[in-house]
Amino acid sequence: MQITASSAMWFLPFVLPVCLWVAWSDLRVMKIPNLAVLALAAIFLIVGLIALPFDQYIWRLVQLIIVLLVGIVMNAAGLIGAGDAKFAAAAAPFIALGDLRLLCVILAANLLAGFTAHRIAKYTSLRQLAPEWESWSRGKKFPMGLCLGGTLAIYLVLGALYGA
Fold it and tell me: The whole model's pTM is what?
């Protein structure tokens, strides 16, 4: 992995609660709170100064801008939700560019697992554990925050364990 174990360990305790919040919120109300996105960006802005060399810090901020612009276009085209686009942009600076392929694999596995688990729960008695969740009644719509938050969390955990 290109991310250093040190930087992943710096980020992980701050980012993990936000990832859990995003997953829970998207399951519950099918929205990723703007406050969660702002918190994630603020974590990078503050902790990134400690966790990364300054040149990497600046390039990672460029990643945020690029992902935000791509997300805006994808949202305008109806491909993803606005909250998903904003979360992806705020998560982008935590990812080492050299780990992009690995991140895609983690996201793909997370999407398969998350979608399958959500649909199994939706159509079984597991749904009764949280009967008021909006994600149960949104037809084909899926709470992507579950998988986006999970992907960032898994990436940072793997980075802390196996990072450069």
Answer: 0.93
